[in-house]
Amino acid sequence: MFRITPIKNGICCIDGIYAGGVKAGFKKDDYDVGFIRSDTSLDIAYLFTTNKFQAAPIKYVKLKNIKNTNFILANSKNANALTGIEGIKDIEDILEFLSTKIDVIDPIMSSTGVIGVRLNKDKIKKAIEKFDFNERSSNKFARAIMTTDSFEKEIAFEVEGEFGKFKIGGVAKGAGMINPAMATMLCFITTDANIPQNEMQDILREINEITFNAISVDGDTSTNDSVFLMTTREGDYNKEAFKEALKKVMQKLALDIVRDGEGATKAVAFVVSGAKNKNEAKMAAKALTNSLLVKTALFGEDPNWGRIASTIGASGVECDEEKLKISFENVIVYNRGKILFDEEIEKKAHEIMKRREFKIYVDLGIGDGKFTAYGCDLSYDYVKINAEYRT
After folding, report:
1. Edge-to-edge strands of the sheet including 357-363?
2. The domain containing residue 275 runs over which residues?
3. How far, in Å, are 28, 50, 141, 195, 198 from residue 202 at the CA level?
4. In the listed set 210, 243, 259, which residue is the last one of a domain according to the structure?
5. Where is this site: Cleavage (predicted)?
6. Residue 184 appears among annotated catalytic residues
7. How does pLDDT run across 205-223, given as a tens digit for each residue?
8. Alpha-carbon separation of residue 86 from 99, 106, 119, 178, 226 (angstroms)
């Protein structure tokens, strides 16, 4: 048995981990360049976007084959994506400058923002000169990586059991361009758990599949999606406890991203069961999170179950209208070929859709595959935010 207790300080809940942010002038009046630093070299695992046009920071990590680091430099407002070899050279130049200010071990740079623009190296170097490398502000770092986010996303836990104890904390950013494939927008997780090196990557990938890979805001996959897991190895370790704690961290951050979807007013869980297998359940659930017609129905609080059925039928999974069941929470609107959607049922379903968060259940009645995906509605504000993104 083990206990997982919420604690404060996000990624800085770990002894020897420092973080902060400064104002470099990329945003009007907020932190926009941040750092994570460790007293010791950290073992790391990471997952990156499967977008074919991966950004320069991702290419740099792969090129250097980085397995350990003690410093991550992050900036917002510029993705450093589709910038070619020059984008990688810009990173090398910036990190070389960083090394003149503090001892670093295979430093990493992570970026988010506008695609197709070279980094302003001078501003970033001036930001580095402002860093207090001994600062321990997870919140400032969380704010520094925000773009269209409306709030900071951070969490931390202490885990105790017969094996001993360890801590784990995380920060993330993301609100738009969210349909992760192997990762999310940007996420940084620190821990002192003494995880065997050969388990880190597999555990991160496993938990990512049911958290960040189960969310969608708008169906778009970024060029910069990244998840980093870093450990000091100074705590204790239990595999079951660590997986559960990592799941809590990543699920909290993933759901915060859905809740913060650009202009979103609803956060909805699509619970698909009875699919032929887990993969088909995931296909159906993700189709529902990405459907524009479903999203607009959510925004309008319209229990238009026909859009849900249509999306399932178009998703490519095995399905049969005589076996299908659709419910808004506990209100069944369609049951194995029978339409139950009368005036009273519609009113009940509409009341459920007025909530900020709720679940829609879809039972395909075919097999035992199940998967839950998380999405949000599509509002007028989403169009406005993205129409004005560069201006």
Report:
1. 338-339, 331-335, 325-328, 357-363, 267-275, 369-376
2. 267-387
3. 40, 17, 27, 11, 8
4. 259
5. 183-184
6. yes
7. 999 999 999 988 877 778 9
8. 20, 20, 10, 27, 21
Percentage helix, strand, coil for the chain under 3-state DSSP, each rounded to 5: 35, 30, 40
How many structural domains comprise the chain?
Answer: 2
Q: Does residue 153 sit in helix, strand or coil?
A: strand
* Residue pLDDT, tens place only, 102-146: 999 999 999 999 999 999 999 999 999 999 999 999 999 999 999
Q: Say which CATH number the domain at 100 has.
A: 3.60.70.12
DSSP-H helix ranges across the chain = 56-64, 84-99, 121-130, 138-144, 197-209, 239-259, 278-290, 292-299, 305-314, 343-353, 380-387
Residue 169 has what pLDDT?
Answer: 98
Q: What angle do CA 125, 16, 154 make, to 5 degrees?
A: 75
Domain boundary among 259, 281, 305: 259
Binding residues for substrate: 147, 173, 184, 262, 386, 391
The phi, psi pair for 325, rounded to 5°, reads -140, 130
Q: Residue 299 maps to which CATH number?
A: 3.10.20.340
Distance from chain centroid for Cα 103: 30
Residues 159 and 219 in one domain: yes
State the pTM of this model.
Answer: 0.91
Amino acid at position 212, single letter: F
Q: 134 and 210 share a domain?
A: yes
Spatial CB neighbours of 50, under 8 Å, sequence gap ≥ 6: 181, 182, 221
State the average pLDDT over residues 52-67: 96
Which of 69, 184, 191, 223 is catalytic? The answer is 184
Answer yes or no: do 281 and 335 share one domain: yes
CA-closest candidate to residue 70, choices 110, 37, 22, 30: 37
What are the residues whose beta carbons fall under 8 Å from the beta carbon of 119, sequence distance 6 or more?
75, 78, 80, 83, 87, 90, 91, 94, 111
Burial of 318-331, coded b for 16+ CB within 10 Å and e otherwise, reads ebeeeebbbbbeeb
| 105 in the same domain as 203 | yes
Q: How many CA atoms lie within 13 A of 53 on its CB side?
A: 12
Q: How many CB atoms lie within 10 A of CB 112?
A: 28
* Same structural domain, 246 and 307: no
Structure tokens at 128: 């580095």
Rounded to whole angstroms, the Cα distance separating 23 from 33 reads: 7
* Backbone angles phi and psi of 18, in degrees to 5: -120, 150
Q: Contact 102/133 with Cβ under 8 angstroms? A: yes
| Termini Cα distance of the chain | 53
